């Protein structure tokens, strides 16, 4: 007998699986997906995820063999954590809070993570800020039997460039594949909306969907506000648009709620705006589409255009999309500094896997395995779940990645443009000015707001708190803050990263 002990996710190709595994397709979604997990495990065992498309993390108990089988999807869109107790029990779940509530858990800070966090702004790799709590990394499964644990990797990104196709061929393949995926993203009786920024990814997803309402975030500060572009796109596509106006007051007020529900500190300023957007969207839908994945798969970041210039030096410094503090600075500001705890070590294995491939592919793979899992997917999952919203990401799909894995880098990035083939595909359903619009990113006016004494009261207090005194050399972090307020806006990320850690620590180790 197989029992589903834990499951979070959405299985896209459920109709094909129901047919193949002889499951009643009329079952309600929860019962249907549990039955798919059970039958897939019975049929394919440890290779079951090779047959599934979607977003998932789960734990199955095999009663006959007294064996626990846990698995996380290929890209890590859903989290999974585990913890071994002092008496040899395994605690596990898709939320750290589940583990914390169980007998045998001892709450201790893993202070080593702070050193990595100050560079990356998110929690990368298998360790967490809670000592002993580990992440099951993407593309892995865990078996627990007779008190022993085994972790195996069932999938990893692999790249095999194919020079035989033209740009139009690649665009056609992207478009036809997304056309095949979109009907799987929801059932006919489900109602969904779609997040929409001014960028090509969310615009393409919206254009390829049948949703009637799009959801955007906006600010009163016009230079940061993409919502007029989003509204323009929605109008062109004949869809409605709902705008969530984000004020600095609302932004700072929600920070403790975000850090608590994130379960790990996250220094990505857009996470706060995303949380507010999720809350607003959850007022009128249960399901919303989002466009994550395409940037990392198809060369979407502007820094990727420097890939060739970096060359072999990449493996000495590139650890993912963010790297805001160097070692000499961390050595100055931290009371405890370990010279052996280096962010680049997290990427060392990835560089070994991509040996011989071009620099852009190496950068993309680092971001797919480290940045996407540690920042983007964590943020999407935690904030949507906390808001009572289910976010589905059509572009994060093995079938989409398969195209990217075969596409030569010169169809991803050239001197003038990033995401070239992807944009060419999007132009089949979008006006060229939208499909080829310069990437803006999910921008937030935090660099302006946080220097304003009307809004930064809690930031100032946290920087002067007993919590800060516990971890930091106070005069050093105060100098960073003072320099920022004095006009060096480049320091805003450092200030925000220190602040989010302090807020998170307050939530988990002071208030609770």
Short description:
By secondary structure, the chain is α/β, with parallel strands linked by helices. 45% of the residues lie in helices and 13% in strands.
Task: From the structure above, extract its key features.
512 residues; alpha/beta; Glutamine Phosphoribosylpyrophosphate, subunit 1, domain 1; Rossmann fold; 2 domains; five-stranded antiparallel sheet; five-stranded parallel sheet; 24 helices; globular; asparagine synthase (glutamine-hydrolyzing) activity
How would you describe what is shown here?
There is one protein chain. By secondary structure, the chain is α/β, with parallel strands linked by helices. The protein folds into two domains: 2-153, Aminohydrolase, N-terminal nucleophile (Ntn) domain (Glutamine Phosphoribosylpyrophosphate, subunit 1, domain 1), CATH 3.60.20.10; 167-435, Rossmann fold (3-Layer(aba) Sandwich), CATH 3.40.50.620. Helix content is 45%, strand content 13%. The protein is built from 24 helices and 13 strands. The chain has helices at residues 14-21, 29-44, 96-100, 112-120, 167-185, 200-208, 227-236, 248-253, 255-262, 270-281, 294-298, 307-310, 314-317, 327-333, 344-353, 359-387, 398-406, 420-426, 432-435, 446-449, 457-463, 466-471, 474-485, 492-510, and strands spanning 2-11, 54-62, 67-72, 81-84, 90-93, 134-135, 140-145, 148-153, 192-195, 213-218, 240-245, 287-289, 390-392. Strands 1-2-3-7-8 form a five-stranded antiparallel beta sheet, covered by helices on one side. Strand 2 and strand 3 form a beta hairpin. The chain is globular and about 65 Å long. 47% of the residues are buried. The model has no long low-confidence stretch (mean pLDDT 96). GO terms for molecular function: asparagine synthase (glutamine-hydrolyzing) activity. Its EC number is 6.3.5.4. It comes from Ruminococcus hominis. This is asparagine synthase (glutamine-hydrolyzing). Keywords: Amino-acid biosynthesis, Asparagine biosynthesis, ATP-binding, Ligase, Nucleotide-binding.
